[in-house]
Amino acid sequence: MKVLIVGSGGREHAIAWKTAQSRRVDKIYCAPGNAGISQVAECVDIKPMEFEKLVAFAKEKEIDLTVIGMDDPLVGGIVDAFQEAGLRVFGPNKAAAILEGSKAFSKNLMKKYGIPTAAYETFTDPEAALAYLETAKMPIVLKADGLALGKGVLICQDLSEARAGVRELMMDKKFGSAGNEIVVEEFMTGREVSVLSFVDGNTVKIMSSAQDHKRARDGDQGLNTGGMGNYSPSPFYTKEVDAYCQEHIYQPTVDAMKAEGRPFKGVIFFGLMLTENGPKVLEYNARFGDPEAQVVLPRLENDIVDIFEACIDGTLDQIDLKFDNDRATVCVILASDGYPVSYEKGFVIDGLEKFRDKEDYYVFHSGTKFNGQGQIVTNGGRVLGVTANGATVKEARENAYKAVKEISFANKYYRTDIARAVDEA
C-alpha cells in the first residue's frame, strides 16, 4: 500500500512511525511533514488546507489510504473532498468533525443525550456574557467555540479575570472567529485524563489512557499550550472509571452522533475530568491528541493500518485492540523558550543521532526542518517530543528525562515535572 499522512507535528510523526511498521505498507508520504518525519516518509510541500492539491497528489501517486492528523482540515471538510474524489481516507467528515469544531455544538449534544459534563451557557453577544458573569460562581471557565490551537480555554479565578477573558475572546478576537461564540462553563475539580478511541460510526474501541500537561510552566502554572508532556497509562483511570465511561460517555457519544445524522468515523479524543461526582467530559477532539499520540501509539500492538481500514469499512467490532500493558511511556516536550507567546526559530539541534533506532526511546519531531546546510533546526514553539518506555511510569519518566539532557539547542525549554502526579497515586 501507499499511504499519505496530512500534517506536520509530533502527532503526525508518531502516526507515520507506527504506519511504517505495518506489514502492508510499502511507501509513506507526508504533507507537509517535518525533518523527523522525513526519516520514515517522503515529505511533500503541500499545506494541510490545500485540499485540491492534496486530492490531485493522491490521485497522481495512486495513494491507497490517506490519514488526516490535524483538526483544521478535518473541520474544514478535507475528508469530504477525498471521498468525493473516490479516495479512501481516515478521519471524520465535516458534519462529524463539528464535535471538535464547535464547543457549543458538543455541549448541546451532551446536554440533549444526558452525557455527563459541566453546567454551561453559550453566548454570541459579549454584553450578555458579561451580564451573566455578574451572578456566576467563581472560578469559571471560558471557552472559544471554534478551533484555537488548544489554547482557547481560559480559567478565570475571579470576576475581573472573567470580564477580561470575555473581552479577549469576543471583542479583541484573540483567536479570530473562534471567539464569535463562547461557552461559559462551571469550573470542575479533579484529575484530568485523556482517552483516545477508534470509532467506525457504530463501534467505539478505547485506546490506553493518558495524562496531559497543558500549562507552560512547572506546577501547572503559566499559559495553556498545545501540551507540554504526557504519560500513559494513567493510574487514575481505573477499571471502575472505565466501566462508567463505557456506559455513560463513550458509546452514548457515538450513538448521539449517529442519531444526529452525523455518524463519526475516525478518532474521538475524550478529555475527561474525574470529579467527586464521577467522570465528566471536559472536551472532545476529532483526531489523535498531540502529544497523546506520542505515548499511546508506542504501546499499540496492532497493525495500525488494519484499524484505520476497519474504521472506514465499519468493521471495527472485528478488531481486538491490544496494548503493551507491561510497559508505560512518558513524553517530555522540548519547546522554544517563550512558547506559547513568542519565540525564535532556526537553532541547530544536537544529540538526535543518539536515539536513532535505540530501543525504548523515540524522539518525535513537532517543529523542525532542515536548514541550508542539511542540519535539523528548530521551526516551532513545540520542537521535539522526547519519549521513553519503562516498566512503570516512574521508570519511563526517569528514562525520558535522561534523554532530554542528551539533546540540546539554543532556547531549549521544558517542564521538569511531567508525570510527577503518579507519585501520589
TrEMBL record:
Its EC number is 6.3.4.13. Keywords: ATP-binding, Ligase, Nucleotide-binding, Purine biosynthesis. Pfam families: GARS_A (PF01071), GARS_C (PF02843), GARS_N (PF02844). Residues 211-220 have a biased composition (Basic and acidic residues). One of its GO terms (molecular function) is phosphoribosylamine-glycine ligase activity. Pathway: Purine metabolism; IMP biosynthesis via de novo pathway; N(1)-(5-phospho-D-ribosyl)glycinamide from 5-phospho-alpha-D-ribose 1-diphosphate: step 2/2. It comes from the Bacteria. Gene3D superfamilies: 3.40.50.20, ATP-grasp fold, A domain, ATP-grasp fold, B domain, Phosphoribosylglycinamide synthetase, C-terminal domain. Residues 210-229 are annotated as: Disordered. It catalyses: 5-phospho-beta-D-ribosylamine + glycine + ATP = N(1)-(5-phospho-beta-D-ribosyl)glycinamide + ADP + phosphate + H(+). Residues 107-313 form the ATP-grasp domain. Belongs to the GARS family. This is Phosphoribosylamine--glycine ligase. The gene is purD.
